[in-house]
Amino acid sequence: MKLAGLLPQRRQASSDASTSNGGLKYTALHEVHVSSGGKMVPFGGYSMPVQYSDLSVGDSHKWTREKASLFDVGHMVQHRLCGPGAAPLLEKITPSSTASLQTNHSTLSCFLHPLTGGIVDDTVITRLGPELFYLVTNAACKANDIAYLEEQIEFRDTSHGAVEWEVLNDWGLVALQGPLSAVILQRALVTAGVEDVDLKALYFGQCKHVTLNLFRKQSSEPDTPILISRAGYTGEDGFEISIPPALTIAFTTHLLECGGRERLRLAGLGARDSLRLEAGMCLYGHDLDDKTTPVEAGLSWIVHKDRRASGGFHGGETILRQLRPVNDGGSAPKHRRVGLIVEGAPAREGAEIVNPASPNSAEVVGRVTSGCPSPTLGKNIAMGYVKPPLHRAGTPMEVLVRGKRRKAEVVQMPFVKSRYWKPATGTSPS
């Protein structure tokens, strides 16, 4: 593989998704959505299904929690970074220990602005080899992320070596989520001619390349491998599967057939949003932005222990100062992300959060960034930012909903217990 030298080099794996419908892009599965009764809406520059005709958003949410759902997340941007300079670059622009990340393991992280430590975008980083990394970023941030990475690659410390950057346009990406996900995917792999994959040994945060022999055409060469990552955005056990363009429709259809309608259904953005909110997960542009640091966003855990000691990443001075106690020279964050249970009507994005204990009982201390009724809990849940120390669990609050003050309480997240497949459980997700 030819590596880039001093200047940033970006290869397109193929042309970007076709555009129509008023300039909106289509994922590779667009026709599958339409033929399956998908209600299409604009999202992140793409035409995406918000729900399907066979299930309401609430029913689709419950189906995912009880059985399994398949989400098209092909609008997300997939990248590869390769070369001896790739790990040092990632250590500079993120607070994560990418240099020590094990092969076929992933970590949630964030691209950071220099000095301020504001979040450019959140990303999942996976190490595929000694000098090869796979990243997934948000569709709505694509233009900003591309400009950011071009600049960071161009002005990096070139003494670490070359970097090659590839954007995997037109590759498929689907998320299989729910307690029946592993059973369905295992059957799909076996019937696709894969015999050496035991998904029980693939844990949350790990991945594996798998070659599907079922779809081999005339050529004697095997198909390009798909990448299976045990991950997800719902809090359930599940997988995200990166699929080369030639196989996206075929493998997705095969997966749906292996699951059967009694176990597996397509799901859209509506259920995905309520599921991720129950799981306490952020949506960029709502719960995260470039003026908010990981500490303020409740993501201190992505600043790994060795990075706290060594620093050297963008915004490190600001972020590490926020992590230190004030009596040790630290600086308290100006606001913190919290979870809220809200009585009465659901609180939506933009609703003001009020401190009922303030002298005038009307002090605005923050705003809601995401909110909806929780189908699992039967309560109204929300995320937002408040001034410390009001971020502590158990703190009573009020939220202004359509001009009325509704009682609320700060609670720990996730709202619904996650059920990831981890080694400590041995036989079941937790």
Automatic annotation (TrEMBL):
Gene Ontology MF terms in the entry: aminomethyltransferase activity; methyltransferase activity; transaminase activity
Single biological process term from Gene Ontology: glycine catabolic process
Location of region: Disordered: 1-20
Family annotation (InterPro entries): GcvT, GcvT/YgfZ/DmdA, GcvT/YgfZ_C, GcvT_C, GCVT_N, TrmE/GcvT-like
Enzyme class (EC, first level): transferase
Protein purpose: The glycine cleavage system catalyzes the degradation of glycine.
GO cellular component: glycine cleavage complex; mitochondrion
Keyword Nucleotide-binding belongs to the record: no
GCVT N-terminal domain residues: 29-306
Protein localization: Mitochondrion
Residue ranges with Polar residues bias: 11-20
Subunit structure as annotated in this protein's UniProt entry: The glycine cleavage system is composed of four proteins: P, T, L and H.
Catalyzed chemical reaction(s): N(6)-[(R)-S(8)-aminomethyldihydrolipoyl]-L-lysyl-[protein] + (6S)-5,6,7,8-tetrahydrofolate = N(6)-[(R)-dihydrolipoyl]-L-lysyl-[protein] + (6R)-5,10-methylene-5,6,7,8-tetrahydrofolate + NH4(+)
Record-annotated Aminomethyltransferase C-terminal domain positions: 336-417
Chief place where the protein resides: mitochondrion
Protein's UniProt keywords contain Mitochondrion: yes
Domain of life (superkingdom): Eukaryota
Entry similarity comment: Belongs to the GcvT family.
Residues the entry annotates as binding substrate: E240
Enzyme Commission number(s): 2.1.2.10
Keywords from the UniProt entry: Aminotransferase, Mitochondrion, Transferase, Transit peptide
Full protein name: Aminomethyltransferase
